[in-house]
Prior knowledge:
Layout: E1 5-7, H1 13-17, E2 20-25, H2 32-48, E3 52-58, H3 61-65, H4 79-89, E4 93-98, H5 101-105, H6 108-119, E5 122-127, H7 141-151, E6 154-157, E7 162-163, E8 166-167, H8 170-178, H9 182-189, E9 194-200, H10 205-208, E10 214-217, E11 227-236, E12 242-252, E13 264-269, E14 280-290, H11 298-318, H12 321-325
Parallel strand pairs: 1-4, 2-3, 2-5, 3-4, 5-6
Antiparallel strand pairs: 7-8, 9-10, 9-14, 10-13, 11-12, 11-14, 12-13
Helix pairs in contact: 6-7
Amino acid sequence: MTSGKQLKTLDGFRETYGGCVASIGKFDGVHRGHLQIVRQLKAHAQQYNVPSLVIVIEPHPEEFFAEDVRDCPPRLSEAAEKVDLLKNAGADLIYLLRFDEALCQLSPEAYVTEILAETLNVQCLIIGNDFRFGHQRRGDYALLQVMGEQHGFSVVETESVQLGEQRISSTFIRECLAKADFRTVEAALGRAYSIGGRVMKGRQLGRQLGFPTANLALNRPNIPLHGVYACCCEIRTATGQEQSVRGVANIGYRPTVEKQGEAMLEVHLLDFEQDIYDADMTVTFCHLVRPEQKFDSLEQLQAQIARDIEAAKAWFATQSADADSEPTSDVK
């Protein structure tokens, strides 16, 4: 079995793979707790001689039911990023389970019988003891245990991962991001927090103000960070050229120039003048320069941007020699 395959459909799964060891969840952020689940999956899959399968619920149920998705907890990662991270973690198979009206109406018993038993032939289900599923969330861990015995699969509780006294969770990481506590975020994720995307043409406002920016469309209604940050960027052009550049990132809704704008990530790259439109860029957030704020005029915004750049440069200058050569976050 070659690890890291995303399934587009579950049709013919049983005939192709025989069965699986599976886990189900949102896997938002794919943090160290999720990585531990993947390790559990792989260990049990080896025992049963079947592939490991991570079932990622998309969209998040709270997003499906919300009148305005912006009222939901901001995502740490989008679906495609989750898939890539789970591939890197070593999951054999990943499937995005569409959370829609049909799934909502499925009874817990039908959920287990039709999806887990008949379609997937699950040999072992690794799941959190707080997992709820099926119509009106009536299904729980206890029901899984009972129905697992009926259908011949075992149910194993996921192992949590602690960071000191704190259990690592997506909610905890969001709280740390809101405080710009990147040291703790990196420890919880097992990597520095970053957002990636394609560099696109914007309104050229930054260039008009004397500070050109690389603009990344976030394609998400809610974001976990708001403000101006010192950052490190990895740029990959269409020709495959790669380079690392420091920058100053502004992430938010641009309240000075937009009334109800979409979330946008704009990065002024320090000492950099190349044309990188359509390049892929990953922005790693290192240090909070200031919160997002609205200015009364573009002149005030222009003056503040100049101060932001100097503040970011000053922060980079304080880093150790090792961080100076390849800075990633507040972790030293």
